[in-house]
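Sample entry as discussed:
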Amino acid sequence: MKKLFVTVALGAAFLSAPTLAQGGGGGGVLQKDQTRAEAQQRTDMMFQMLDANHDGTVTRAEADQALANFQASRGENGGHGGGRLQRMIDDAFAISQSLTLQQFEAQSLARFDAADANHDGTVTAAERQAARGQQAAPAQAAQSPLTKPAKPQ
């Protein structure tokens, strides 16, 4: 029961974090304006949930296990948030197989700052939408079938 509660709480934390608020068109907490302090608080909470052995470091294995627990509790692929959760983990551990709280926070707050277009310390729904568009453009370009080569000049 405790594992299920942690899994559900982990899923809620991931889905409400600004790094994951950039997907999905639903309303609610995903559309709520979020301050930098709130983003840091959620990041810290997420880190504590991921750090299964409470040694102050989250490993890729711990994050993958949390993802597996989340997906198991939500069905086949973790439901609506499973893919975003997988991308967040992939991004977080792209360079290193373990992260300290400070490294985890730095990554999360860098994403927050990038989304905070007017640098007022709050990411609004409009700023999230703009950040979502900026992230989607490179992914779509990489996936587009054949593009016309530029004409030689």
In short: The chain is about 60% helix and 5% strand. Residues 4-9, 15-27 have pLDDT under 50 and may be disordered.
